[in-house]
Design a protein that fits this description.
Elements lengths: L6 H10 L6 E3 L18 E5 L11 E5 L41
Parallel strand pairs: 1-2
Antiparallel strand pairs: 2-3
Length: 105
């Protein structure tokens, strides 16, 4: 999704996906143009923080339509997240997707 002229294209794809989760990569759009995830039928919207949002490198976001979190399974768990004292990842949002970063010195 690079240009707003593609908004109708994104809406059309989202409307035909039905029960298939629809992920949009908004790396080139976030921070430059408004994105209405409901109007565009987007289930998941991924974006980096360092481009249009002018944030630091290494951060980003994933916006989930309510209910989508129930069909996702993290590929990595544990680490230095919010409950690192436990051997398993939390099951509540947003902690279940916040694995954390490895300690680096």
């Amino acid at each position: 999704m690079v240009l707003m002229s593609q908004e109708q294209f994104i809406k059309a794809i989202g409307s035909i996906c039905g029960d298939i989760p629809f992920l949009v990569d908004a790396a080139q759009t976030m921070g430059h143009f408004p994105i209405d995830v409901q109007e565009m039928n987007i289930d998941l919207l991924a974006f980096p923080g360092h481009k249009g949002l002018l944030g630091p490198l290494g951060i980003g976001g994933l916006i989930l339509k309510p209910g989508v979190e129930n069909i996702l399974s993290p590929t990595r768990t544990g680490g230095t997240g919010s409950e690192s004292e436990h051997p398993v990842q939390p099951t509540t949002m947003p902690d279940k997707y916040e694995v954390g970063s490895h300690n680096m010195i």
